[in-house]
Amino acid sequence: MDNKIKKQNVYASEEEKTLIWDDIQNSFKKTFGSEIYNSWLQKITLIKEYNDYLILGVPTRFFRDWIVSRYLDKILEQVKSFKLSLTRIEFKIVEENKQNQEIIKIDELNKVTEIKDSILNYNRLNPKLNFENFIRGKSNDIAFSYSKKVCEHVSRYNPLYVCGGVGLGKTHLLNAIGLELQNDNNVMFISAERFMYHFIKSIKKNDMVNFKDFFRKSSVFIIDDIQFISGKESLQEEFFHTFNSLMDKGSQIIISSDRAPMKLDRIQDRIKSRLSGGLVVDIESPDLELKKNIIKRKIEDIQNQFKENINISDEVIDYVAAESKTNIRELIGVLNRVIAFSRVHNKILTTSDCKNILKDVFSQIKVITVDKIQNIVSNYFNISLSEMLSQRRSRPLARPRQIAMYLSKKMTTRSLPEIGRRFANRDHTTVIHAVKTISRLAEQDDEMKKNINQIKSLLIDQ
Question: Is 306 buried (19+), middle (13-18) or exposed (0-12) by CB count in 10 A?
Fold first, then answer.
């Protein structure tokens, strides 16, 4: 019977081996992690397989839109590792089977308990992410100070909005606030993605009353990575009313995001206004001194935890700190790699050893975003970002704008419509025109070619 089911799930191409969908699903779980897999990818089914593309089934249009906007590139990359000839994926909306519908009906008998238990089991505060082990520096001192003040004077800064790039300590601070306040308050700590997951489940089960009651009763509401509600109008509507309800009852709200409120893409203006109405604090990339302190603290923690001596010289610490130019999370990953090598070979490493161990890491192209391109280009041409994004079409503004669009297409994974939206909601055809124009000019005009190469260098070096 198992073989029969497997044959129904895959369609063998004539040129390559038939895909085993269970193997691909296992790879999704390893690549994306259990949270994303269980929430979104587990329900994807393989409907039909062709030599160069797949047709996958998803339960709802909402699922399809979310998966396409967030995970499509990585999904395609994963399936290509099983079959190189695949170049695209198409999604088809399929109704969930009767078995799933029966499970939903059974679950409805215990609606409130399911939401509560799921939240409590998943969103427990991490006792290790506290204020005591948060390492302060110039880049995060303001965010740290006001996070502490929120704990001393609840609702004085409301909402507190912490923004900064990936891996800089936002979640650590939010978790620390939750730990500090949990004894005397009803603390709710949840990621925006998880909030959305429960929102969708409640809609499907016609259980929005319990959803609203549960999320609006907290006295401290902490939500991480709010940018994930981008483009989801119904979810934004619910978040807006939840936010207002909590504010009206005097609850403290703490929010994190990868960018400032007014830079959030495809978020309602009224939500941006509410988020900007409290205190916005920024965490910047760590400077050299902070990175060295983080490395030293991490080495101490490992020594205390495993009761072993780790011999890493100051010279090596300086090298790792200076060469790691992304974020704290990746800095720790690099350090772990150095320590593991030192353990395996039982030797005290030199800078030369580290250069050899980490050559593939430090030679990688750094992550480049549309925001970064816009800032670099506007600074390069000595114009303000607001001018470059404006509707004015004068040559001194239009040409830098086109260059920024061109580089956004060439150096990021953003789609044409996404790039257009990031440039003051311009149409994707405007982006296409910009890419064609700059491509042609770069071939014909040496000055244009020079400008683009210099801007690329700035993007890679910073």
Answer: exposed
